Amino acid sequence: MKKCFIACPIGTDDSKVRRNSDFLLQSIIKPALESDFEIQRSDLISSTNKITDEIIGGLTNSELVIVDLSTHNPNVFYELGYRHALERPTITMINKDENIPFDVSTYRTIYYSELYADVVNAKDQLKETIKTFTDNDFNFENPVNKYNNIDNEYGVLNRHLLDIKSDLSELKEFLPSVTKQDPDIPADSMVRMMELAVQYPDQFERLMELQNKNSH
């Protein structure tokens, strides 16, 4: 069975940080992935090795790493950078109430919260993202060359399509509030907005960044 390592802020027992990390593990990640992955988190591994050794080992040897960016923990960002350097499958997540730092804002990130709808959506996005990784992506002995591997190009394309799907979903929720504030905006503006999103993805991305800032 493939291994999935979780890089996340741990915090002290009974702290808000620990409760959030436990919720993400037990309510979202495990239900979505445990049928296909052995899921590990550094503080839950029984070993005599140093905790740092366990973390580096998990980041290096696991077929998949999920990184929780919540609370902007510096250790977690170090672990994310280490994993990116390996060019291996990595998924970033963050609590819905927090902003993504600029340096990693271009990476597809799955939002979650304790609300039922957000839990279901996060689990679905995890499953969909896993499907975009090819067998070569999970092959440690033959890392994917993102410039030459055709299968990986299809995987990247699928991940971009998932980004668009997620952004359009957020925009669908955002536009009704705008039209209420300004009744002069026609009801069919959403259709035109989606067409423009496909034609001008860069401008659409900036629009979504602006919407995310306004929502927080």
Order of strands in the sheet with most strands: 2-1-3-4-5
Unreliable stretches (pLDDT < 50, length at least 5) are: 141-151
H/E element order: EHEHEHEEHHHH
Average pLDDT metric: 76
- H/I helix tally: 7
Q: Residue share in helices? A: 40-55%
Q: What structural category arises from helix and sheet content?
A: alpha/beta
From the N-terminal CA to the C-terminal CA, the straight-line distance is 40 Å
Q: What is the alpha-carbon Rg in Å? A: 19 Å
Strand percent estimate = 5-15%
Shape: globular
Number of strands: 5
Largest sheet: number of strands, sense, barrel closure: 5 strands, parallel
Describe this structure in words.
The protein is of the alpha/beta class. Helix content is about 55%, strand content about 10%. It has seven helices and five strands. It has helices at about 15-35, 50-60, 75-85, 115-130, 150-180, 190-200, 200-215, and strands at about 1-5, 35-40, 65-70, 90-95, 110. The protein has a five-stranded parallel sheet, sandwiched between helices. Helix 1 (about 15-35) packs across helix 4 (about 115-130), helix 4 runs antiparallel to helix 5 (about 150-180) and helix 5 (about 150-180) runs antiparallel to helix 6. The radius of gyration is 19 Å and the shape is globular. The N and C termini lie far apart (about 40 Å). The model is unreliable at about 140-150 (pLDDT under 50).
Concise account of the structure shown:
The chain has 216 residues and is an alpha/beta fold. The protein has helices at residues 16-33, 51-61, 74-86, 116-131, 150-181, 189-199, 201-215, and strands at 2-7, 37-41, 64-68, 90-95, 109-112.
